[in-house]
Specification:
heterodimer; A: 6-stranded mixed sheet; 5-stranded antiparallel sheet; 11 strands; globular; B: mainly beta; 7-stranded mixed sheet; 4-stranded antiparallel sheet; 0% helix
């Protein structure tokens, strides 16, 4: 059974700092990995999708990497801003068994202080 | 472009009452999902529909039923609500195929008293 872990559970940084959020998964047989952002009381917004054959994806100040063999992904946020404060979730889509299911980590709560 | 729309946004039920959560997507996606999100538990899959006409159980299906009414709509029904079903419910959809992105609705916050 796939398990996804996100460390740290919470992170507080000063504005302008570069930071890294971590996501690990136990079964490397995945189709892709997706990073989401969730603001308090809101739904999930997709940030980046990395296919299993890719090593990284970039969108603006965000860069996500994937090392499938070691079961790890990182989300790098450059020059953090208070507006980046949110919970960040990663999810993997397995390639074994049912390929319709996304397995989520519990998220990292990020606070960027002005 | 509305994406994934859920109704209602908030609901309070008494134990034993029934209700249906509605979800509709306008992206012509094949697959649709219902998740619940609880503090400390993360998102857990309740039911999913890989395509119109099919539904399957996820991790936590007990106490729920679903209907894939057509390609756009996927509803979640609580027949006899229990306090343990107090949660935030999210609907999601995805175009079928390898490596497609999932899109989520804004959620329904349900409290069962």
């Amino acid at each position: 059974k796939q398990e996804v872990t996100q460390i740290p559970a919470a992170l507080s940084v000063p504005e302008g700092e570069n930071l890294v959020l971590n996501c690990s998964f136990t079964d490397s047989a995945i189709y892709n990995l997706q990073w989401f952002r969730q603001d308090p009381g809101k739904g999930l917004t997709s940030l980046l999708l990395i296919q299993s054959s890719q090593r990284e994806q970039t969108s603006g100040r965000l860069n996500a990497s994937l090392d499938k063999s070691s079961g790890r992904s990182t989300l790098y946020i450059a020059a953090s801003q208070p507006g980046d404060s949110a919970t960040y979730l990663c999810a993997v889509k397995d390639s074994g068994g049912s390929n319709y299911k996304l397995t989520f980590g519990k998220g990292t709560l990020l606070t960027v202080n002005p | 472009n509305a994406g994934v729309t859920q109704t209602p946004k908030f609901q309070v039920l008494k134990t034993g009452q029934s209700m249906t959560l509605q979800c509709a997507q306008d992206m012509n996606h094949n697959s649709m999902y219902w998740y619940r999100q609880d503090p400390g538990m993360g998102l857990r899959l309740i039911y999913y529909s890989a395509s119109e006409g099919t539904t399957d159980k996820g991790e936590v299906p007990n106490g729920y039923n679903v209907s894939r009414l057509n390609k756009r709509e996927f509803s979640l029904r609580l027949e006899s609500a229990a306090p343990s079903q107090t949660s935030v419910y999210f609907c999601a959809s995805r175009r079928q195929g390898v490596g497609t992105e999932a899109f989520f609705g804004q959620g329904t916050r349900l409290t069962v008293v």
